[in-house]
Amino acid sequence: MCILVDTLHHYAGRNPRKFVKICHPVAVILGLATAVLLFLVQMLHVAPQLLSDVLCKLYWMLAIFIMYNILGNMLACYRATSSVASLPEDRQVPATEEKHLWHYCDLCQKMSPPRSWHCKLCECCILKRDHHCIFTAGCIGHNNHRYFFWFTFYTALGTGLCLVSTFILLVRNHLALQLINFSTFLDTLLFTITLFAWVATVVMLSFQIHVVYLNNSYYQILDRTYDLGIRSNCRIIMGQRGLWTFLSPTIKSPLPHDGTQWKRRHSE
Ligand SMILES: [Zn+2]
Ligand SMILES: [Zn+2]
């Protein structure tokens, strides 16, 4: 896994445009196909074998809610840009009293606000840049961090449910009856795919919980410069409605500022 990530990083650094052209569609299609496959298998194959009619319907509703949040947050994440260029023109230059906090980006050839940094793949500076995500085909930053958090949360929850139910099915239907057939092979394959997806998303989710908790970023996971306490940190990323944004990506939750002015831990 680490070798794969390192190779991707190396290739992305050397051929950013080619990387975006190839890896974005591949990663997005792979992610969507896995989500739809796991959803359909759960609903049509696993749930009917494990649950009664009533419970099966409840499980369907839960699964639809999870899928809605995975796909909705993924789309919202893609559509909400955090590039410095998305700011109103008068906010793309620092006010006199903020000038000392901004830095010059050699690649954009203009001033950039604090906590923003350049992404070679997006070819622009990103407000409070967290990281570049190939599964949402863009950078995670000030304006779409909330959507990425819930996208990761619901993917971890969904794959976790699939993992438990597939494991129960495997034990109950096959291992207990000591049957090894094509169906066992398919269920084992499904279990393995789900396990990989679950581990990857749980690792990312634990990083993101830490990022929200300390108001830092994926590449500065130990930084506490902007840690204003859990309530404020949460509102900075999730917006005015805080954790209620878990209900839906369509909930309006305005952010406290435009991503150019950052209060530090020990400043007033
Ligand atoms: Zn830049
Ligand atoms: Zn990027």
Query: Main sheet: which strands, in order across?
Result: 1-2
Q: Classify the secondary structure makeup into a structural class.
A: mainly alpha
What profile does the largest beta sheet have? 2 strands, antiparallel
Number of helices: 6
The strand count comes to: 6
Which kinds of small molecule does this entry bind, naming each only once?
zinc ion
Tell me roughly what share of residues is in helical segments.
55-70%
Mean pLDDT: 90
Give a written overview of the molecule.
The chain is mainly alpha-helical. It has a domain at 20-82 and 143-247. 55% of the residues lie in helices and 7% in strands. The strands form three sheets. The protein has a two-stranded antiparallel sheet with strand order 1-2. The chain is elongated. It binds zinc ion (2 copies). One zinc ion binds next to strand 6.
Task: Summarize, please.
The protein is mostly helical. Helix content is 55%, strand content 7%.
